[in-house]
Design brief:
197 residues; mainly alpha; Arc Repressor Mutant, subunit A; 2 domains
Length: 197
């Protein structure tokens, strides 16, 4: 029982630190945030901060890692070409794609912050690399490479990843005026514009 209470308190403290950190980055930019102003704003002592994080770079690294791990989980799923074609013909959202865009919608403000001028510059590259790896694995799992042997795998996965990243970035830049279901319909239409299916 005592261990569970400790775990709950630890999770609350880490959430408080992260929420305060994100708020400070939104207000002042990543470079202006210090452990001192973070702990003062979160109303915790520095010792408590250092129980959970090494420094501000560790905080942002863990935030990015948690987000990217979650996105990868919703991206690398099995897809059914027949179901995809059916939903494309019926102009309905394909559920595995809805899951990806629901995740983006949930974390939209965080993604905009991390990708924007106040965020940490390395995040865009980490996001692109993770999306490329995820699509490579997804295409491999679903035999897309075998069905398109004339296209080198790295180019095919980079191209498909670019479609996703382009749709995601445009959606975020417009402050997500369409629902994840609507974006999933647009996305599948873009996929079926391509010669590989």
């Amino acid at each position: 029982m005592a261990e569970r209470i400790h775990d709950v308190m630890t999770a609350r403290t880490k959430k408080r630190i992260r929420d305060t950190f994100i708020s400070l980055v939104e207000q002042h930019g990543f470079n202006a945030v210090t452990v001192r102003n973070l702990t003062a704003t979160a109303r915790i002592n520095r010792g408590t901060f250092y129980l959970h994080y090494k420094d501000k770079y560790d905080v942002i690294e863990q935030i990015q890692t948690d987000f990217l791990d979650g996105l990868q989980k919703v991206m690398v799923v099995n897809i059914s070409p027949d179901e995809m074609k059916q939903t494309y013909r019926e102009e309905k959202p394909y559920l595995p794609f809805v899951g990806m865009f629901e995740y983006i919608h949930k974390y939209g403000s965080l993604i905009r912050l991390l990708l924007g001028p106040k965020g940490e510059p390395g995040f865009a590259g980490k996001l692109r690399d993770m999306v490329n790896r995820s699509f490579h694995k997804k295409l491999q799992n679903n035999n897309v490479f075998n069905n398109n042997p004339a296209i080198p795998q790295e180019y095919l996965s980079a191209y498909v990843a670019a479609i996703f990243l382009g749709v995601m970035e445009e959606w975020l830049s417009q402050d997500m005026p369409h629902s994840p279901e609507q974006i999933a319909v647009f996305y599948i239409k873009l996929i079926f514009l391509q010669p590989f299916k």
